[in-house]
Amino acid sequence: MRKTEFANGEFYHIYNRGVDKREVFSDKFDYERFLKSMKEFNRIEPIGSLYEKSFKDAKLTLLESKSPIGDLDSKSSKSIPIVEFVCYCLNPNHYHFIIKQIIDGGIAKFMQKIGIAYTMYFNKKYSRSGSLFQGTFKSIHIDSNEYLLYLSAYVNKNNFIHGYNNSNWKYSSLAEYEKENDQENKLCNTVPILEQFKDKKDYMEFLNDNALYLKDKKEENRYLLEE
Questions:
Q1: How far apart are CA 8 and CA 21, in angstroms?
Q2: Whole-number Å distance between alpha carbons of 83 and 105
Q3: Which residues contact 2 (CB under 8 A, 6 or more apart)?
Q4: For the chain, the helix, strand and coil percentages under 3-state DSSP, each to the nearest 5
Q5: Which CA distances in Å does 196 have to 1, 52, 145?
């Protein structure tokens, strides 16, 4: 039985790792596939496979290009998100999210979609079968603002904390906190974190200080998922 009961409007730390601590991201295409899944499966309506969706999107684009403005139902091309990302990091053998639930059952629905879809993709690509992740995803309710800020540092620089890469890690939300927002490719809502700091530089100082501390304190299991 899951101990965490998800409530709308609340923040949660979600994480999991590969079964037997195996790698779940073996190359850049695996990372990119998972990132695309994070975006595309975050909606109420089913989309089928990402492969099938690529053809549906191409068809919709073609229809829009041939139709007068207003001919198509504007809701048909829009999606209603079921969770809101605040931070994320993908590492070779595990991932971390900070997310907020938007609709009833949103987190469970989203995690089920992404878990099944990515496992099917990975197993087909690498000619394997069976579970890819270590059981059901883990979750912790973020029950204070202090905890939220602390975890944002942990998740945004999780690759550094685990020693995978010291800079330029493409598979975390850190870039969304460092640079001006690219609305088209943006996955996270950075406002809940950044609005509490004077500016981005102020937050980066907080983040770097805490990441260094956490790198030295990896044994604190409440915050850290062991490799």
A1: 32
A2: 9
A3: 136, 139
A4: 45, 15, 40
A5: 36, 41, 10
Is residue 8 within 8 A of residue 109, CB to CB? The reply is no
Query: What tokens does 64 get?
Result: 């829009």
> Do 89 and 173 touch, CB atoms closer than 8 A?
yes
Q: For residue 100, give the 3-state DSSP assignment.
A: strand
**Average pLDDT along the chain:** 83
- Domain membership of residue 104 (yes or no) is yes
pTM score, whole prediction: 0.82
Residue 226 lies inside a defined structural domain of this protein: no
Furthest-apart CA pair in the chain: how many Å? 60
* CATH code for the domain in which residue 178 is found: 3.30.70.1290
Query: What does the block give as tokens for 201?
Result: 């530089």
Query: What are the C-alpha distances in Å from 121 to residues 7, 33, 128, 147?
Result: 30, 9, 10, 34
Q: What is the mean pLDDT of residues 89-114?
A: 96
